[in-house]
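Q&A log
Question type: sequence-to-structure
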Amino acid sequence: MAETRNLDDPIDVAISAIEHFAYCPRQCALIHLEGVFTDNLWTTRGRIAHERVHSGEATTEDGIPIRRDVSLVSERLGLVGRADLVEMRPEGPYPVEYKSGRRHGDYPDLQLCAQALCLEEMTCKAVPRGAIYHVASRTRREVELGEPLRQRTMALIEAIRQMLRSQTLPPPAADQRCRRCSLQEVCLPQVVAAPRRLAGLQGALFRVYDQE
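Response status: OK
Response body:
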């Protein structure tokens, strides 16, 4: 069972921050703490994919009401965000998260799980599964939202809240993840991860020159 947050804690966590933090805590901090974001090919593709699904109105398919761009909130967990699409099935809500590319890790599964936790609180119905729709391959992958995934998701929510509270920028990953990240020029992972190089650059930047 999900733990209830301290209601005296005013810090809400954006659902989108969960995937960012799972992928790279520093990326999450730059976006959600520093307010920095830049686009590259992959983020542009993702934005276009979300604009398409969000542009549609509520419809019904095979007798199932379809809701798009659904506002989500969990007072108990301190979560806020949106779901790309929710199928309002008779047995309960079925969230579907759209991703522009092919699968790279289970980071979207954690974001989907957070959406399910919100939907359960909002509708008082169980959400045991949902799906990731991969736009590039036009395939839907169903995700079982079992207890291990829920525990990981809730741990990430609290870790993000602690990061936001401390106002601390985590160290860079400085690995293969950085190649796909649109924040490379802001993050400077290879520089920050090398203390001697960083110190040298800082010294050159703040060096005082004698004026003749």
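Response note: The first strand starts at residue 13 and ends at 14.
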